[in-house]
Every structure is written in structure tokens, then in C-alpha cells.
């Protein structure tokens, strides 16, 4: 229990610094400073923002479903926090069982429902349209997301993150599956509703998307859930493709992947929605379906 609490607090603090990193990167991409007043080089800005957001008055409209509006942002963050114990740190996870990948599948699927609840409970057409878009996008990319994990599970003959780490003792899966890794990163961006796939928050057509009626502490919880899921998927990327989070090299790759997820936001414009769906169903899915038989042959030959 103490280990769980320490790791969850550490990741919450890392999420705070991850937001300042994003604002700095986007600032320098746009030839400006970014936050630089609060603390040394603006390093305490996230804590200042958190205090400001949680001290704001929450205004709720008459047509809102109060119970769901208050619960759903917290539950979305809670689901993200539940994924932390199943991640392998130094070939050891806090919640270690033989099928923790299946648990990860279940938790990531449940998170879709909370985004739908956030949009529906606000009783705003923009909010509901944003959440429906988000659910359609996440369900579409979950297919390729799970198929990639299934491919790596077949390669290692296990549904455990630890076993996948052990099966990469001699050579990481990345070196033979660079195209698959590229597809995985794009799928992670789509799963977390990040730019250029941020259709749930389309400012140009949906005002602010599914969180348009949420302010103050509500918005902070939704914001924390999004950034925490980005960090968790970055860690899972390392376990899946680069052995485990047990060496300085893999931690450097983790930092690099985390920065790439932020860098893409400042580089690419938003996709068109039909192109997003076409990418998932007509490009990614056929490629993965063709690749899986090779992994089955590999596992039979070498295991």
C-alpha cells in the first residue's frame, strides 16, 4: 500500500512537470519563452495553476446531471491511476499476475465510458458531440492498439508485462518491428486524444469539445487524467519494445518518447475526421492482420 501511494504521488508530480515541459516546448517552437515567472525558469508554474483551478468556483447549469458531472472527471483520473500498479518497474510490478495485460485492456476500455459520461452529463450539444467523436475515435484505434499488443504477446507467449520484458533479454522487439512501433506511437496519440487527433477538443468547430462546461477543479481532473495516460502509455511503450524500465538507456528513450508526444502538437495540423477513421480501418488494421501470422511462426520456431 505504501509503495502504491509513493508511486502514485510521484507520477502525479511528474504529470505536473510534464505540463510545464509541454508549455516550454511549444513556446520555443513558436519562438517565445513560455512560463518563466513563477519559481526558477517558471518551474513552479504547474503548482500555481493547480491552486488557481482548485480555488475557482464551479458553476453548474440547471440542465446538468449533477451527480455524474461531479463524479465522472474524478473517475476518469481514478481509472488512469489504476493502471500504475500493473506497470513493470525494474522487472517488478506492484500488482503482479500472469494476465496484467488483460487488466490493462479492461481499464483502457472502461475509460471510454467516462469520457462519454463527461460529455452527456453536461447536457450541452457541443460537449456531447465532442464525447461521441472521442468515443468513436478511441474504439476505432483500440482495435489496432490491442492487435499490436496481441502481436507482442504472441511473440513472448504471455499476457504478462514481466514475461514480455524477459523475452527481450537478448534483443528488443523494436529492432525487428520499427514499422509496428511507428504505428503504435500514432495509435497512442489517437487513444489519448492528442494533437493531431484531438477531435474531442476541436476549438474551431466544437468551442472546446467534451469539456466545454467543465471549469476549475473539474477541468484540472480531466487534464490530469489525459497527461497521466500519456505518461503511462510511454512507459508501456518501453516495456513492449525496449525490454524494461531498468536501465539508464531505456529511461532516456522514455523521456524521448514523452517529448515526441508533445513535439507533434507543435508540428502537425489537425487531421480531417474521415481521414482519421480511414487511417485506422483501411491502413493500420490490414497491416497488423498481415503481420500477426509472422509472429505466430516466430513463437513456434524459437519457443
UniProtKB/TrEMBL annotation:
| Membrane-spanning residues | 6-23, 74-95, 101-122, 143-161, 173-190, 218-242, 248-268, 280-301
Enzyme Commission code: 7.1.1.2
Q: Name one GO biological process term.
A: aerobic respiration
Keyword list (alphabetical) reads: Membrane, Mitochondrion, NAD, Transmembrane, Transmembrane helix, Transport, Ubiquinone
Q: Coiled coil located at which positions?
A: none
Xref: InterPro entries: NADH_UbQ_OxRdtase_su1/FPO, NADH_UbQ_OxRdtase_su1_CS
What this protein catalyses is: a ubiquinone + NADH + 5 H(+)(in) = a ubiquinol + NAD(+) + 4 H(+)(out)
Q: What is its main location?
A: mitochondrion
Q: From the UniProt record, which GO molecular function terms apply?
A: NADH dehydrogenase (ubiquinone) activity; NADH dehydrogenase activity
Can you list the GO cellular component terms from the UniProt entry?
Answer: mitochondrial inner membrane
What membrane topology does the UniProt entry give?
Multi-pass membrane protein
Its top-level enzyme class, in one word, is: translocase
Where does it live in the cell? Mitochondrion inner membrane; Mitochondrion membrane
- The organism's superkingdom is given as Eukaryota
The Swiss-Prot or TrEMBL record describes its family as follows:
Belongs to the complex I subunit 1 family.
PANTHER family for this protein: NADH DEHYDROGENASE SUBUNIT 1, NADH-UBIQUINONE OXIDOREDUCTASE CHAIN 1
What's this chain's function?
Core subunit of the mitochondrial membrane respiratory chain NADH dehydrogenase (Complex I) that is believed to belong to the minimal assembly required for catalysis. Complex I functions in the transfer of electrons from NADH to the respiratory chain. The immediate electron acceptor for the enzyme is believed to be ubiquinone.
| Protein name as annotated | NADH-ubiquinone oxidoreductase chain 1
Amino acid at each position: 500500500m505504501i509503495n502504491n501511494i509513493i508511486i502514485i504521488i510521484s507520477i502525479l508530480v511528474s504529470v505536473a512537470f510534464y505540463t510545464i515541459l509541454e508549455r516550454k516546448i511549444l513556446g520555443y517552437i513558436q519562438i517565445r519563452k513560455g512560463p518563466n515567472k513563477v519559481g526558477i525558469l517558471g518551474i513552479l508554474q504547474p503548482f500555481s495553476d493547480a491552486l488557481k483551478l482548485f480555488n475557482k468556483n464551479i458553476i453548474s447549469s440547471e440542465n446538468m446531471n449533477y451527480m455524474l458531472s461531479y463524479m465522472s472527471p474524478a473517475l476518469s483520473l481514478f481509472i488512469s491511476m489504476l493502471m500504475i500498479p500493473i506497470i513493470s518497474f525494474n522487472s517488478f510490478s506492484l500488482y503482479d499476475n500472469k494476465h496484467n495485460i488483460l487488466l490493462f485492456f479492461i481499464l483502457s476500455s472502461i475509460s471510454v465510458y467516462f469520457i462519454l459520461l463527461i460529455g452527456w452529463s453536461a447536457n450541452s450539444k457541443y460537449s456531447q458531440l465532442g464525447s461521441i467523436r472521442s468515443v468513436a475515435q478511441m474504439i476505432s484505434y483500440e482495435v489496432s492498439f490491442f492487435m499490436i499488443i496481441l502481436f507482442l504477446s504472441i511473440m513472448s507467449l504471455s499476457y504478462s508485462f514481466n514475461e514480455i520484458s524477459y523475452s527481450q533479454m537478448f534483443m528488443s522487439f523494436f529492432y525487428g518491428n520499427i514499422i509496428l512501433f511507428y504505428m503504435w506511437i500514432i495509435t497512442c496519440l489517437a487513444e489519448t486524444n492528442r494533437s493531431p487527433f484531438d477531435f474531442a477538443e476541436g476549438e474551431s468547430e466544437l468551442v472546446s469539445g467534451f469539456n466545454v462546461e467543465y471549469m476549475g477543479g473539474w477541468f484540472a481532473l480531466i487534464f490530469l487524467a489525459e497527461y497521466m495516460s500519456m505518461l503511462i502509455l510511454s512507459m508501456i511503450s518501453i516495456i513492449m519494445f525496449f525490454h524494461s524500465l531498468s536501465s539508464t538507456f531505456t529511461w532516456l528513450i522514455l523521456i524521448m518518447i514523452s517529448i515526441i508526444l508533445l513535439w507533434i502538437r507543435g508540428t502537425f495540423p489537425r487531421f480531417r475526421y474521415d481521414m482519421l477513421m480511414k487511417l485506422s480501418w483501411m491502413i493500420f488494421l490490414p497491416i497488423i492482420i498481415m503481420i500477426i501470422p509472422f509472429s505466430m511462426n516466430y513463437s513456434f520456431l524459437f519457443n
